Amino acid sequence: MSKIQALRGMNDLLPTESPLWQYLEAAVADVLGRYGYREIRFPIVESTDLFKRAIGEVTDVVEKEMYTFNDRNEESITLRPEGTAGCVRACEENGLLYNQVQRLWYQGPMFRYEKPQKGRLRQFHQIGIEAFGMAGPDIDAELLLLTARLWRDLGLLKHVRLEINNLGTPEARAEYRTALVAYLSGVMDQLDADSQRRLSTNPLRILDSKHPATRALLQGAPKLSDYLPEQNRNHFARLQAILNHVGLAFTVNPYLVRGLDYYSDTVFEWVTDDLGAQGTVCAGGRYDGLVAQLGGRPTPAVGCAMGVERLVLLLQTAAQVPEGIIDDIDAVFIVLGDFMPQAQALAEQLRDELPLLRLTLYTEAGSLKNQLKRADKSSARIALILGEAEFNRQILVVKHLRQEQAQVEVAFAAAPALIDQWLTQD
Predict the structure, then answer these.
(1) CA 295/CA 297 separation, integer angstroms
(2) How far is CA 317 from CA 20, 121, 152, 216, 395, in A?
(3) C-alpha–C-alpha distance, residues 156 and 153, integer Å
(4) Which among 332, 320, 327 has a CA at the least distance from the CA of 382?
(5) How many CA atoms lie within 13 A of 344 on its CB side?
(6) What is the mean pLDDT of each run of 10 residues along the chain (426 residues)?
(7) Cα separation of 23 and 282, whole Å?
(8) From the CB of residue 130, how many other CB atoms can be counted at a distance below 10 Å?
């Protein structure tokens, strides 16, 4: 019988990898908590109509990438391809938005059907940040400062750069779209195949093309900045003034448009050159019209999402993985003989008195030599040994595994204090 394997592009996270994810997630939660953001959780499956209305039916995500199927009631449902739409739906449905300010964050898996590659999987994980009820550039700046602080805490600030742009209003983009299509139609035969397809569906995405010939043609294209209303120009100028005042470096990228229809006004990306083609590690912008588009009252909003897989890769590539982070235990408890009930009780006593102690009790039988070999392969710094002679004397033998120190004997009652002292010294 053949083995069942994971679906392509949907990877396992192994115990040797999960500590780095936990480190990253804890750092994110810490920074967000310091800025007053609260966690929200919502389903990974939603009505397909939610994403069609929010993201746009002619986007690559909706056209080609969503995992959509009918349930037993013949209702079309979709595994979430991104988090903002679901977050807005949850907030609106539960009365969190009208005349309120909300600072929220979430984390979890997203799903897009595309060619799997390093840093780009079919099941991938994002941490999203959303702020509702604030219309000015101050909250845009807060998101950029918050993410910059996170990169600084993780040792990544020198490995990323910030790019910003302003998309204006939907009306301004419609006018600009007409001018852009007119220009590109004249050079259509020189565009790459993907850009030719987008010319009739989502021409602004052509601005984000990575194809060298297309990028060269865009140098002569109309500029979106020339079509911005005064209110958007002012918003963008005030945002830049704030970033300059606090000393956060950025570049204005006139070709930055993002891939989802709900964005307007400010958009931004944190990008890196360390990961090859998958260079965007965090991106977002304003989506002031989305709440109303999904049936709520008009609500200003801004948000961003960061890819966990890419940030983990960047931590590894930039050599910013803290030493010892993969270590998962401090001590092992080896039992020789029929004393497992007593050993279990003693292990629980140690955990009671040393709440931070990471202790693994070897419950399977084996020789002392084999169990010490196993302990050597672990991250444990000491081994606690209990055999018949030790039990009769109510002592433990403590063997240091990482330092050249003689093994010692310690009474049961004195063990917690001495173990704590040894581990602290190590």
Answers:
(1) 7
(2) 13, 18, 16, 31, 47
(3) 8
(4) 332
(5) 6
(6) 91 92 96 98 96 79 86 94 95 95 97 86 96 97 98 97 93 85 82 81 79 83 87 96 98 83 90 88 94 94 96 95 82 91 93 93 89 89 92 92 88 89 75
(7) 18
(8) 24
Q: Among all chains, which residue has been given the structure tokens 């950029």?
A: 144
